[in-house]
Structures are given as C-alpha cells and as structure tokens.
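Quick one from the shared queue. A colleague (R.T.) flagged Strictosidine synthase as missing a structural entry in our internal table.

Convert sequence to structure tokens.
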Amino acid sequence: MHRPAALIPRHYVAIGGRGPEDVVADARGRVLTGLEDGRILRLDGLAEPFAPRVEVITRTGGRPLGLQLLPDDGLLVCDAERGLLGVDVADGTVRVLADTVAGERLRFCSNVVALSDGTVYFTVSSRRYPLEEWIGDIVEHTGTGRLLRLAPGSDTPEVLLEGLQFANGLAPSADERFLIVAETGACRLTRFWLTGPKAGHREPFVDRLPGMPDNLWRGAPDGPVWVSLAGPRVPPLDLLHRATPDVRRAAARVAVRAPFRPSGAVGVLAVDDHGEIVHHLTRRHSGFRMVTSVCEAAGGLILGSLWERGVAVCEAPSTK
C-alpha cells in the first residue's frame, strides 16, 4: 500500500444546504454538487474562503447523488428517488432518462459516467435498502449492487453486472477500454472490461483498500482517478461479513435504527490505470467528516460529503 501523506485543509465553504454527496468540476474550475433537498448547485470562487458564489442550477424533485458533466452543457444525475436524470445546465430543465430496469423501479442510483460514443454507465448501490438506510446494506452485505448501461437514444437500461457490494463510484480508463467500479461494502475497486478479449468480465483492480470507497472522479484523461474514502475499514464489520445471512440481517435491523456519527478519520486516494496508488492522503482527526467525493478545482482538492453542510478545500498533492 502507498505510504500515506497528510491531507491538509485550507478552508471550509458553507453552501446553504446539507449533503453535497458528489462534487464534479467543469472546464472553468467551477464545482457542481447536489444536496439533500434536491437542489443542484454550481460553486465558483472556492479558492477564496470568503468570496464563494453559490448558484442554484435546478431542483430535481428527488435526492441527487452522482453527477457527470457532458460536453454539450448537459449534466447526468443519479437521483436516489427518481432514477437517471438529464439536466440542461443552461436553463435547468430536468428530464427522466430511465426510471425502471427489467420491470423493476430504479432506485438508489449512485454514480454515472458517459463515454465518447454516448453510452452511459451507472451504478445502483442496493436493491434492498433505500438511501436513508444505506448503512443496512453495508452491514448486511447484501451484494445487490448493479452496473447498468444505457445505449445512446435508449430509455431502457441493460444490466451488465450484478452481485456488487454496494456499487458506488464509476470512472473510465483513459482509453475507455474498461470501467473502474467502487464497491463500498467490500473496500475494493473492481475493473469491468468493455473491449478486448476480456470484454464483459470483471476482475479485482485495487483490493483491500484502507477505507470504504465512495465516488470516483477523473479530470484530464491522462490524470489519475480520485477515490474518496467515506470511512476507514472497521475490523468488526469485516468479521460480521463472514457470519451467516441471518446474523447479518439481524445486525442490519439494529444498525438502521441506531444513531450514526461518522468517523473523524478521512482520506482520499488517486490511482492510475494500472491499479497503482499514486497518492494517499489522510487526516486522523478531521472536523469535516464522511468524505464521499473529491475533485480537483480552485488549485486544490474539493471534498464533498453526504453528512456535511458544505465542502472542504484542501491542498493538492505534489505532482509525481
């Protein structure tokens, strides 16, 4: 495992709402994020702690999670309540791209990417638990996560992978030969081949991560894939995952009713297309908790969180 370095905070930016779960940067360095109340915001001026500009792009009418900017001023949104959405950033128009799959209501969409040919890939974290009970899926270890594909011009998603442990972040390789899928519940990144002799097959990409991976983000095609770690590994949870299904199910019922407070230990990783960790940044006692996303903007790293009411701006690591 790559030797960790310190995650150094610059400042915190309140944005007037809770839960900026995913953060993505546009070509001008502005950051888009979705909140618990359904708003999608565009944040500018994050380099300065006292002069950020917060603009409401639209309201989805649900709970936006993963975002993907498109070249034509469009935005793909995984909405945990409404399915896969398309947003016109210029006028805020929202349309449903897909809300069912194989006759089943599409819920808990998590993260999305679009490739150069227009094909859209997105994840569903759980078929058993809704977003507000996400911890139940982590504890029960249901393995009901999915990877889906939506072909250009289609409104019918295709299931590519099943049996994923809380499928979450997505990122393509630089040459678009494979996708990297974050499995939060298994603390690993999985590679799914799109082309070549292994097309349609999955394999481990980065295993035994030091924490639970959440959203993934890739800026420049030749840059690394940034991985947010929503929480550290929990040895008792690893042990519970080896118990019988009945034991895990009983533990999940307790977990969804118990008060939850995220750990103060936070971290982010950057990996290359060979599965090598090129950056590992951590902070053991952070006031900004449950880092569910990270992107590069404003000359640093911007952190999002399902838990917080703002975003954190941190120092970017030195280039290797």
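The domain at 5-315 is CATH 2.120.10.30 (Neuraminidase).
Residues 245-255 form the longest helix (11 residues).
Added to the table.
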